[in-house]
Amino acid sequence: MSDSTTITTKTPEETKQEVEKSNKNMMLNVGPSHPAMHGVIQISVELEGEVIRKADIEIGYLHRAFEKHSESGTYTQVFPYTDRLNYVSPAINNFGYAGAVEKLMGLEIPERCKYIRVIMSEIARVADHLTCIGASAMELGAFSVFLYMMKAREWLYELTENVTGARITISYGRIGGVKADLPKEFTEQCRQALKKTREVLEEVDGLLTRNRIFMDRMRGVGVISAEDAISFGITGPFLRSTGVAYDVRKAWPYLVYDRMNFDVPVGTTGDNFDRYLVRMEEMQQSMRIIEQALDQIPEGPTNIDHEGRVIEPDLMADLGKFGKTAGLLKNETLLEPTLEGTGKRVHLQIRANDKDAWIPPKEQVYSNIEALMNHFKIIMLGHGIRPPKGEVYNMVEGGNGELGFYIVSDGTDRPWRVRCNGPCMRPMAALAGIITGGQMADIIATFGSVNMIAGELDR
Amino acid sequence: MEVDKGGGTEFGFFTSRLDKMIGWARKFSVFQYPFITACCGMEYMSVACAHYDIDRFGAGLPRFSPRQADVLFVVGTISQKIAPVLLTVYEQMCSPKWVVAFGVCTCTGGFYDDYATVRGIDHVLPVDIYIPGCPPRPETVLNGLIMLQEKIQNQKQEV
Amino acid sequence: MPEAEWSKTLKKIQEQFGDRVIEMHAQLGQDTVVVSKAAIFELARFLRDDPDLKYNYLMDLTAVDHFTRKPRFEVVYHFLSLEYNARVRVKVPVGESDPEVESLTPLWKIANWLERETWDMFGIKFKNHPDLRRLLLYPEFQGHPLRKDYPVTKRQPLVGPKDPQA
Ligand code: SF4
C-alpha cells in the first residue's frame, strides 16, 4: 500500500501539525497514481496502526473544463465532450445532453429513435457495470473475474462499434435523433452478445457471490445508512443498496422506459456486498430491457424498394459541385461512408423532422436549394441550432445514478451555460466518512464499489 | 547506431553484437508502468486483457511501482494539476527507460485546449513513441508497441 | 402561467415567502423560484422540513454568470422530493461586488463539496462554510475559470513537483 507511488502534492497545514503533535499516528497518501485508484484521486489518511482515524479526499486531477468548452462551442459541438464525461457508458451522456436540448426546443423525436436510444443506453449500462465489478474484483485479487468481464465487455463494444462506428468515444447522439440507424444484422448480433454475456455473468456469479474471501472483504464493509446517502445526494446503485428504490427510469420515465417491464433491485444493508449484488442484478434487468426493446421496436420503411443505385458520397458531392444535379434526388447515398444505416430512407425514422435541428439527407442537399439552405443554416457559424431563451434541467439514469444536464440558453447558437451534474461526486464526497474508522485495506473494496469515473467527477 | 568507439575493429564487433543481444533481451521484457488518468484507460484495459493479449509481446506484466518499470505508459489526459505527479513518477524510474504517449491527449493535448490541460506531455518529459487516436484502437497500440520494440533493439544500449 | 395553475410547491412558497420572492414561473413544466439572497437558507430549510413538500435531496448547486446583467451572478439550486416525486429550482441573484450567500452545509452534507466547486469556478463565497477551498483546481491557480471574462485557453504556469518532506 505504502508504495513508492505515493506522492504528496498537497498536505493540509492543520492536518500535518496535528500529526506531528501525536506521533503515534501516521500520515499516508494513497494516490494520485496508485494501482487500486483507477482514475486519479488522492486519499490522504491518518492511520493509527491499521485503523483510519481521519481521511481527506482530493479530486480534480482530471479537470478538463467540460463546462467551459461547452460554452465556447455550438450546441452540436458539445457531443464529443459528453462522450468523455463517463467514458465507460458514453451513450447515456450523449442522450442525456440531447434530451436536455430537445426539451428546451420542444422537439419530439421519432418512435424508432427512442427505442434505439433505450437499447444503446442499456448496452452502455451493462458495459459500465461489467467494468466496475471486474475492476473492483481485480483489486481484491480476483484477476480471472476481470478477464471474464473484459471479454464480455469486448462483445458489447463490438456491438457498439457496428452501430456507431467507434468503440468508446461514440458521439452517437444528435439533437433530435441519433447519428445512424441500427444495421441490418443488429438484432441477431445483439441477442447473441447478450446470450454470451449472460453466460459470463453466470460464471462470475459462481466465482464471487458465494466466495468466502470475497464475502469477508465485502460484507459489512463500507456501510452507509439511507439517511446519510440522501443527505449526500447519492443516487444510483449506491443509493439502492441502502434500500431506497429511486431510479430515474421509474420515477421520471423518459424515452420509452414506461413501456418496459423491469425491476429495480434494492439492497438492505448498504454495504459493499449489497452494491455488488445490486449491480449484478441491474445488468440482468438491463438485458431484459434490451430484449423487450428489440421486440417492440417499430420497423420503418427502410426496406422499401427504390429506384436508382447507391453511389458513393464523395462522387455525389462532386456531381453536385459541377451542377449535374439532374436525377440526383432519386439516388440514395450514405451520410457516412463507413457506416451502415445512414441512408436517406432511414433518415425520417431516426431524426426529428424539424428544420431547426435536422440536417437534411445528402441527396437533397446536393439536389435542391431549400435543403442546401437548410444544411447551410445549421452548419454555418453564427446560425446553427438555436433553442429559445430559457433554462432546462434534464435527467437520465446514468451508470452511477442520476445524470443531470442544466442548460441555460440565451437564444443564440451557443449555450450560455451547460452544467453537468454527474452522479460520481456524491459518493466520493461521502467516501471520507465511510472509510473513517475502518481498516486501511478496506479502502480498496469500498472505493471499488463507488465506481468512480474521473471524467465525470472532475469534468 | 554508433558502435565503433574504441577504435579497434574487434572491439567494435563485440560491442555491436553485445548491443544487439541486450537489445533483444530488453525488447521482450517490457515492464510497463501504466499511468492511467482518463478514457484511454478503457482501451488500455482492452489491450491488456485476453482479447488482444499484450502478453505476446512480452509486455503483459504491469509493474505498479516506477522503480521496477522500464516503460512509462502515459494513458489519458494530463492536466496541470497532475503534471507534477507525472514528472515525479518519471524521475523515480531507473534508466534505461522509455516513455509512450498513449492517445492524442498525451501527444498534443487533443481537443482539450483549455486552461486546465497540458498541451502534450512532451512539455513535461521526453517521449519515445506517440500513439495517436482518441482513444487509439487496440491494434494501433500493438503497432506502437512493436515500434517501441524496434527502437529498443536498434538503439545504443546503456549498461 | 396563471397563478391558479401553479403547483403545490409554488403556492406554498408564495404563501410563506411572498415578500422575498422576486419571480416565479413554471416554464417547460419546471417549477422555478427566484428569491432574494437573505431568504435562501430559510427557504431551503422550509422546503426540506415542511411535511407537505419534503424536498430531501439537494440535487444540484451551481451558478450562472450573466456577465452583462445586473446582478451578475445567479446561484442555482435544484431540489428533489423523493416522497412526492417533485422538483423545484431555486435561483438567487448575487452581485459582483459582494458575491456571498449563506451556506447550506448544515442542512445537506453534499452542499460542502458543491459549494467548494462553485467557489472554485465562480468565486462565489459561502458564509459559514467550514472549509472553503478549491475543489477541482490547484491552490496556485489564479482566478475563477467559469466566469465569462476568463478565456478558455488562458493557461497558467505549471507548478513543479513539490518536496513531500517540505
Ligand atoms: S485521447 Fe481521447 S480518449 Fe484518450 S484520454 Fe484523451 S480524450 Fe480521452
What report would you give on this structure?
The complex is a heterotrimer of chains A (459), B (159) and C (166). With 459 residues, chain A is mainly alpha-helical. Chain A folds into two domains: 68-300 and 387-458, Cytochrome-c3 Hydrogenase, chain B (Orthogonal Bundle), CATH 1.10.645.10; 310-379, no CATH class. In chain A, 46% of the residues lie in helices and 10% in strands. Chain A has 19 helices and eight strands. Chain A has helices at 13-21, 66-72, 79-83, 90-105, 111-139, 143-164, 186-208, 212-218, 226-231, 237-240, 248-251, 272-296, 313-321, 344-350, 362-365, 369-379, 425-435, 442-450, 454-458, and strands at residues 26-30, 42-48, 51-58, 173-174, 177-178, 390-397, 402-409, 417-421. In chain A, helix 4 (90-105) runs antiparallel to helix 5 (111-139) and helix 5 (111-139) packs antiparallel against helix 6 (143-164). The longest helix of chain A has 29 residues, at 111-139. Chain A is globular and about 80 Å long. Mean pLDDT of chain A is 80; it is low at 1-8 and 301-311. Chain B has 159 residues and is of the alpha/beta class. Chain B has one domain (29-154): Rossmann fold. Chain B is built from five helices and four strands; from the N terminus they run αβαβαβαβα. Chain B has a four-stranded parallel beta sheet with strand order 1-2-3-4. In chain B, helix 4 (104-107) links the parallel strand 3 (98-102) and strand 4. In chain B, helix 1 runs antiparallel to helix 5 (138-154) and helix 2 (40-48) packs across helix 5 (138-154). The two termini of chain B are 16 Å apart. The model of chain B has no long low-confidence stretch (mean pLDDT 82). Chain C has 166 residues and is α/β, with parallel strands linked by helices. Chain C has a single domain (3-127), classed as NADH:ubiquinone oxidoreductase Nqo5 subunit (Beta Polymerase, domain 2, 2-Layer Sandwich). In chain C, 19% of the residues lie in helices and 25% in strands. Chain C contains three helices and seven strands. In chain C, the strands form two sheets. A five-stranded mixed beta sheet of chain C has the order 1-2-5-4-3. A two-stranded parallel ribbon of chain C has the order 6-7. The longest helix of chain C is centred in the C-terminal third of the chain and has 12 residues, at 111-122. Chain A binds chain C through residues 7-10, 59-60, 63, 65, 67-69, 71-72, 103-104, 228, 230-233, 244, 246, 251-252, 390-393, 402, 404, 406, 408, 416-417, 419, 421, 425-426, 428-430, 458-459, and chain C through 27-28, 30, 32, 56-60, 62, 64-65, 76, 78, 82, 85, 87, 89, 108-110, 112-114, 121, 134-139, 145-146, 150, 152, 161-162, 164. The structure holds iron/sulfur cluster (SF4).
